Amino acid sequence: MLQIACLRQYCEDFLADHISNENCLTIWREARLSSCKVLANEAWNFVHREFPSIKSTEDFLACDIDDICLMVASEDLNVPNEEEVIDAILLWVGHEESRRKQLSRLIALSRLCLVSEDFILRRLLTEQMILENQEVLEMVRRSLEYHILLSRRHDECPPSAMYRRASLYDNVMIVLGEGKDNFYAYVFKTEEWFQLPALPEDMGLGSSACSYGDDIFVAGGKNTMNALFQFETRKNSWVKLAPMNVGRRNHVIVAVGPCLYVLGGLNNEVTTLNSVECYDTIKAVWTDVGFLHTAVRSSGSAVIGKKVIICGGKENDTVTSKTVQCFNTATNTSYILGEMPSETCLPRTIIDMDKIYLITQEGCVWKMKLNDRSSSIHHKSQLWDFARYWHGALLHDGIVYIIAGETPDNSDLPDVWPIELQGVFQSVRNLRPANITRCMACIRTTMEKYMLKDSLAMDISRV
């Protein structure tokens, strides 16, 4: 037995030293069948490292569908770009006519949103296999929307838009706190915090932010009522843009089409506003475009198509609203959609597959159903049972991230707890970075890894 074990080890060592592009997949398969775990790992790691070189080998073309699925879906695949993976899929599927039925399965496992717009137009939309497959064509259409609809790019983050571990980019959450230095990036994959360049000015309480493309736009605030700044993620720097026509804080800012819309808020005279103005990102000018049906501040918001949905907020110092209203950017008109179960201000909205969820200060999770001119809202879950002001909320990969927030009675939550909500939410993660108490905004985007400098040891506050 000892001799057999020694011989087996010798064979494993020999094969491990002779893994190549041409034989790595064969060695990987045989090692798995023979329960040679170390050799299988060596070969599999080689496949990950050299994938661009092995995708056209006979070994690769001879793989079965399950092995191809493992490679395409692997988080550790080391490719310079996702075009390499899509090319590999098309090579494998095109090798045998019978494999065409597997095309949709493989494309669904890929990071299709991360291929270039040019690749989609010139390669995918001229590929006969794709043009003949309606399911795949729909996936390609959605990936094209990811590039074209800059205002909606980061509403959601499907698996097809999540960067692999070896990528030059990371999916991040941008968190804007109170004060010019409280501007951070949280990397979902590594759970690390990074300090980002400070805002040019301390905008004060009540500033608002949104994304357009991969950039972040921050507007207004108690100290800089008219200001608009753009954080260019590819340059890791700020740009000052044209000021708003009407200074405001505690307002809503959203992106629709090529424009940024600011709605409602509070002015210097402490008057609640109903005015709406629009910043054209191409012409770089502000235009007054209309009015909300009801003047509100500290509202929640969501965008569906060309409609901005405004949820609750405060009408004045003593009246909190439960009204849901809509501002239609196509017609610049506003109307009432309905009411929420109760009055609330600063509810945080989450969008998943055009479904709107609201998370209130009291921890209620409400699901909103929109019709053409009306809305209905139903209570779905309870995340906590105490007041938590100025918190942020964002859904990513099935996890609801709750960020910061003031809790006057010092109540707090566990770090993570499970929640099952119609396959949308799987768990809740409670993030309380000690540097941030009030969260002005938390926004998803992508950044190049080299822009993210030394990781911060962000203590978790139990305030």
TrEMBL record:
Keyword Coiled coil recorded: no
Segments forming domain BACK: 24-125
Keyword entries, A-Z: Kelch repeat, Repeat
Pfam family, one: Kelch_KLHDC2_KLHL20_DRC7
Organism, scientific name: Biomphalaria glabrata (Bloodfluke planorb)
SUPFAM superfamilies: Kelch motif
Cleavable signal peptide: none
SMART domains recorded: BACK, Kelch
Name by which UniProt lists this protein: Kelch-like protein 24 isoform X2
